[in-house]
Design brief:
alpha/beta; 17 helices; 12 strands; two-stranded antiparallel ribbon; single chain; 483 residues; 8-stranded parallel barrel
Length: 483
């Protein structure tokens, strides 16, 4: 196994075993994003529902996307590009945190300017992430519904603005609170001083409302009946929020002290609003002088552009460094199946071409802001040669030099070396996403890597053709062992 499939996609069993590969890569200008890829399998007979965390009361009142579905209790099901952690209790989350701390230590000792990948489903109760995501999405949707009633439907998130006076009046007329209370919200949070409120301002109001003991009611725009926005965000959820932020704080401090950057991986769409919000909260604290924490934005999502532009604008207003890894996404089949079975809108772009367009649109926005000297860094995580060429072309046009280290590239270990190593040799910051762990314990990861995406054999043929071309070139030159 170590000489074949494991050796192709996994760097080694522990932080000592991976050092030779990392040093060899480093000699060619290739860094590492370390990922301790040990995970639990469900083959031991545990029920799928226990992995998902069982639903408590009131499920019928929840948004369809944020309800538990027994068929998706194993949130790893149907996923080929990422590995999973399963919630047992808070002690297990602490164990996962210790695993990530060891990964940070390994990154410091093995890779210059390296990253350590973390997953928030390893650090928090999944049902908390689902509940928190639902709260955030309801709040955002309410803002956009009010904007639509003012004729602003379909606008980009940063172009959607509500007049403060009209907004306060509308909220009072809906019976959400008295006019005096609503005015106090805006005054206390220093929101709307320009006379308008956008979604970023609106989110600041939510920050203060989550601490209220009195439930905040918002009207269901279809039925007209008031619904409690925060009904599932009580004392227990507050404690969950506090614990996951504490764990992220421990990891971020360790990473910053050791010169390692943290990469917060993206996950399923029903977790992702909460994951991104928690990543942003950590970036606010630790990205003041440099990008220590990187979020991940999935460009196969219909909302990807709004997500990227919103987060980047927030960082610019507040003066901290925006850091992101742009990916296409690893959960497409599962997301589509779940949406179809549960009856909500598919969150994924309709075609691969649309996802490519979204990726390039998001990337171009970030590159333009880097050109304007915003505090921003991006990892272009892709195996798509056209996307790499697009990035290099735009960097040249915009005058972004590789030595600025604002733009880097990333590919998986064992894949697309014909992209990674030429970039490293040309002086571009480039990284391999490097899994490591004991053979038996990374088998679930390897089993999915074997079936990962339908284009893997096409890419393998491409690499084989390039290798054969190089062998023939060397033989014909009479120097088979010299490049």
């Amino acid at each position: 196994m170590k000489m074949t499939f494991y050796g192709q996609f996994v760097a080694g069993e522990d932080q000592e075993a991976i050092k030779p590969l990392l040093r060899r890569n480093q000699a060619f200008g290739v860094g590492a994003v370390l990922d301790y890829s040990v995970e639990e399998d469900l083959g031991d007979g545990r029920s799928r529902t226990s992995a998902a965390d069982k639903e408590t009361g009131g499920a019928e009142k929840r948004e369809k996307q944020y309800r538990v579905h027994l068929g998706f209790g194993d949130h790893r099901g149907g996923i080929t590009g990422a590995h999973s952690y399963f919630y047992a209790d808070e002690a297990k989350c602490d164990q996962h945190m210790e695993t990530f701390l060891r990964c940070i230590d390994a990154s410091r000792g093995c890779s210059e300017d390296g990253f350590c990948a973390i997953k928030l489903t390893a650090l928090a109760r999944p049902q908390f992430l689902v509940s928190f995501s639902e709260v955030l999405v309801k709040w955002w949707r309410f803002f956009h519904q009010m904007a639509a009633e003012e004729g602003q439907a379909g606008r980009a998130v940063l172009d959607t603005k509500l007049q403060v006076e009209k907004l306060q009046e509308a909220l009072a007329n809906l019976g959400i609170a008295s006019k005096a209370e609503i005015q106090q919200w805006f005054t206390g949070e220093n929101v709307g001083t320009s006379g308008t409120v956008d979604l970023l301002d609106w989110n600041r109001l939510l920050d203060s409302r989550t601490k209220l003991s009195k439930p905040l009611l918002i009207p269901n725009r279809k039925t007209g009946q008031p619904e409690p926005l925060l009904s599932r965000f009580g004392e227990e959820e507050e404690q969950q929020l506090k614990r996951v932020l504490q764990r992220m704080d421990v990891l971020a401090r360790s990473a910053m002290e050791q010169g390692v950057r943290l990469m917060v991986d993206a996950e399923q769409s029903y977790f992702q609003p909460a994951i991104s919000r928690l990543a942003v909260e950590t970036q606010r604290l630790f990205n003041r002088s440099q990008p220590v924490i990187y979020n991940t934005h999935q460009c196969y999502l219909r909302e990807a552009y709004n997500n990227v532009t919103g987060d980047m604008e927030l960082s610019h207003r507040e003066g901290w460094h925006f850091g992101t890894k742009l990916v296409r996404g690893a959960y497409m089949d599962q997301e589509r199946e779940r949406a179809a079975q549960m009856g909500y809108e598919d969150p994924i772009n309709p075609t691969y071409e649309k996802t490519n367009e979204m990726y390039h649109r998001c990337l171009d926005y970030v590159l333009e802001k880097i050109k304007q000297r915003w505090k921003a860094s991006v990892m272009v995580a892709t195996h798509n040669e056209d996307t790499v060429k697009f990035t290099l072309h735009r960097m040249k046009e915009l005058g972004i030099h590789p030595s600025d280290k604002k733009v880097c590239f990333g590919q998986l270990l064992g894949m697309c070396d014909q992209i990674t190593f030429p970039l490293g040799q040309a002086g571009f910051p480039v990284y391999k996403y490097v899994p490591f762990g004991p053979v038996k314990e990374v088998l679930p990861y390897l089993s999915r890597r074997a079936q990962e995406n339908r284009g893997i054999m096409q890419r393998a043929n491409r690499e084989r053709d390039l290798l054969w071309k190089e062998v023939k070139r060397r033989l014909l030159s009479g120097n088979p062992f010299s490049p």
